[in-house]
Amino acid sequence: MSKIKELVKSKRKIFILSALILLALSSIFIFNGFQTTAKTKTIVTTKDGTFIEASGVVENNPINLSSEISGVITNVMVKEGDLVKRGQIIAEVDNSSIKNQYEQALDNLDVAKKNIEVSQKSIKSYQNVYSDSKNQAKSAYNFANDEYQNVLEGASTDEVKQAQEAYNQALINLKYMENNLNASKTLLTSGKITQMNYDEIKKNYNLAVSQVNTASAKLDQVKTGPSSANVKAAKDKMSQAKAAYELSVSNGDMQLKQLENQYEMAKLKYDQAQTIVNQLKKELSKTEIKSPTDGIINLLTINKGEFTPLGKPVAEISGTNDMEIKVYVSEANIGHIKVGQEANIHIDSTSEETFKGKVIRISSNAEFTPKNIQTKEERVNTVFEVRLQILDSKGVIKPGMPVDVNIKIN
């Protein structure tokens, strides 16, 4: 009886083993059939062209945005999931203290600018005055020097002739006045003129005598040359005029230099004021925490009224222009792929909507199919990594999403 039971058990084991082997072979057959079907679908042709199908995952290196200045958060302008543009303000840090300093710095800059303008006007005004005074002093010196040179050189022939003519004319005039005086004495005695008339005639006679003496001295001077006294007088006059001119130039240059130094100092203060304004403006801009790129707010770690220290991350942003899709293409099909080719992108959540992309990189090294990647050809041993850029995610496609892509090869 026991032998019969053992026989039955043995047959049962054989049956179970046979069933398991048959099930395994059926699975392999079905699996291979599926893979063959998938392979035939890797390259598809539609009315829009010929495409290579592939699947992948959206990748992105998120940006951790931090505050460049410590302070209390006064405003938070976005929330998690919001689309933001490059330069858009994410949050604001209390800027009251820096703003007051900035406004005061602007006032100081305005004062410094006006001081430069005043200094420039002072220089221009003094240059005009200085030029006039220097020219007058130089003219006086040139005139005195010319006179001195004339004295040294003596009289010319024309000057002697002129002096002689002047002396002769003075003698003629004196002779006339003398005759007139003699006649007036007779008239005064006879009572035909008054004493006042006689005194006037005598006065004219004396003036004529003086003119003769002056003309005679002048004639003697031009004939005999300048006296040492005349030379000394002319030289002293020239020396005084020269000293006055040099003093005018020296004082003028010194005063002008002082004004120019004041102008340079005004410019220096203006530059210093401008530097302070620029520094405070930069610090003021730091109170506005801005997005460095177009993207999506993945995470916010701040709230209004909280204190944020310098350098603390306040938000995580995924750049919408930086997202890439990594797919794998079989060795048999990689020859169809070229950089720049267009691609249609589909996601499960909006299966009817198509997004645009393009191929940006193709790996030059083959690799075994990664275990975590579901390609269209599971039977293929080696594949090539292909990277695509998403051109118009519209904020819908996000990092980590699985996507299907159709790369247009024709």
Automatic annotation (TrEMBL):
Chief localization: other
Alphabetical UniProt keywords: Coiled coil
SUPFAM superfamilies, alphabetized: HlyD-like secretion proteins
Top-level taxon in the UniProt lineage: Bacteria
Cellular location(s): Cell envelope
Sequence ranges assigned to domain Multidrug resistance protein MdtA-like barrel-sandwich hybrid in this UniProt record: 64-312
InterPro entries linked to this entry: Beta-barrel_YknX, MdtA-like_BSH, UPF0194_transport
Recorded GO CC terms: cell envelope
YknX-like beta-barrel domain span: 323-407
Protein name: Type I secretion system membrane fusion protein PrsE
Species name: Clostridium liquoris
Lineage, broadest ranks: Bacteria, Bacillati, Bacillota, Clostridia, Eubacteriales
